[in-house]
Amino acid sequence: xxxxxxxxxxGPFIRRDAAGxxxxxxxxxxxxxxxxxxxxxxxxxxxxxxxxxxLLSRAEAPRACxxxxxxxxxxxxxxxxxxxxCRAAEDAGTVxxxxxxxxxxxxxxxxxxxxxxxxxxEIRLDCPPGTRGILTAGDMNRTTDRYVLxxxxxxxxxxxxxxxxxxxxx
Length: 170
Hints:
Distance between the termini: 53 Å
Number of strands: 8
Structural class: alpha/beta
Shape: elongated
Number of domains: 2
Radius of gyration: 19 Å
CATH class of the largest domain: Alpha Beta
CATH architecture of the largest domain: 3-Layer(bba) Sandwich
Number of helices: 3
CATH topology of the largest domain: FAD/NAD(P)-binding domain
Strand order of the largest sheet: 1-8-2-3-4
Largest sheet: 5 strands, parallel
Strand content: 15-25%
């Protein structure tokens, strides 16, 4: 695992997610740094908004569910696998991503989707799973799955379970 003491700058052009970005990004060059589900989803999202997107993945291939990987393979997103970014800088609206191999990416926007960790250890349930009135989803139900789609399915199941419970009580 790569360890770094480098602190990622954060600002209008270097971000940790796509929240708050304009719905249209035509004419912009965007980079997404990461290898997982969030990175692939963000890259596709930015491409849908019209940006020319490059996905820089430290891994030899992005890791995501089959549906997202299928969409990625037919998209306009350029994938640079095996590419480790070691530094990011922004100056007057231009973002530079320096790579460990000496390469460089330059554009208008960079979104970093790296280091997503579960915070399940911060939550304590004093009841067994399946307890009436306690609905869980995502990391609360799994310890190895790190995919968004199963978590979404869990959320839908929890909502359905809640609906059934409420209608039985009514």
